[in-house]
Design brief:
Length: about 180
């Protein structure tokens, strides 16, 4: 029979896993980079990639791609979590988000990373255990789980960190595999 201390030692020997979370959007693509060490989660970076509304779509999409590619090269994540597109009332907005999401998937694919997609419901359940949680409740849990002093801003960055945490919890539960 193994002792608890042996199991604890085994857990601490696990290789840290860098996880990139992405909340796609044409105007603002949120990103959050965390590292999972055993059961601990720590923030490495978060923010957003902003594009200007009056700029041509193809230039905006290229800016998003380059920004994500730069982040991937800098942090070298093992896995990437991306929020799935959900039904939007405004078709024009849904199309723009879909295009930004496609560019994010391209950056992930070109860098040969493992992709995991999560619905907003999955993210809410992973962070709050309540599928109808408000945006504010999810953001508060991001703050608590990551041990931050305040809720991350902008909102897109907080959402991306939530996706990264969801991804980390899925890895811990054995639902996702990490390339070794």
């Amino acid at each position: 029979m193994r002792k608890f201390s042996e199991k604890k030692q085994e857990m601490s020997n696990k290789k840290p896993v860098v996880i990139l979370g992405i909340d796609p959007g044409l105007a603002d693509t949120g990103f959050g980079v965390i590292i999972k060490k055993g059961s601990q989660l720590q923030v490495l970076d978060y923010g957003n990639i902003k594009t200007k509304a009056k700029t041509d779509y193809q230039i905006r999409l290229k800016q998003i791609y380059r920004g994500l590619d730069k982040l991937i090269k800098k942090y070298q994540p093992e896995i990437v979590g991306v929020e799935k597109l959900f039904f939007a009332k405004n078709a024009k907005t849904a199309l723009a988000v879909g295009q930004a999401r496609g560019v994010a998937l391209l950056a992930i694919g070109k860098n040969q990373l493992t992709l995991h997609e999560f619905t907003p419901l999955q993210v809410k359940l992973a962070l709050t255990a309540y599928g109808q949680a408000s945006k504010k409740q999810v953001q508060q849990m991001v703050k608590v789980i990551l041990g931050l002093k305040e809720i991350p801003k902008p909102d897109d960055a907080a959402d991306a960190l939530a996706v990264a945490i969801c991804c980390a919890h899925s890895v811990a539960a054995g639902d996702l595999k990490v390339k070794s």
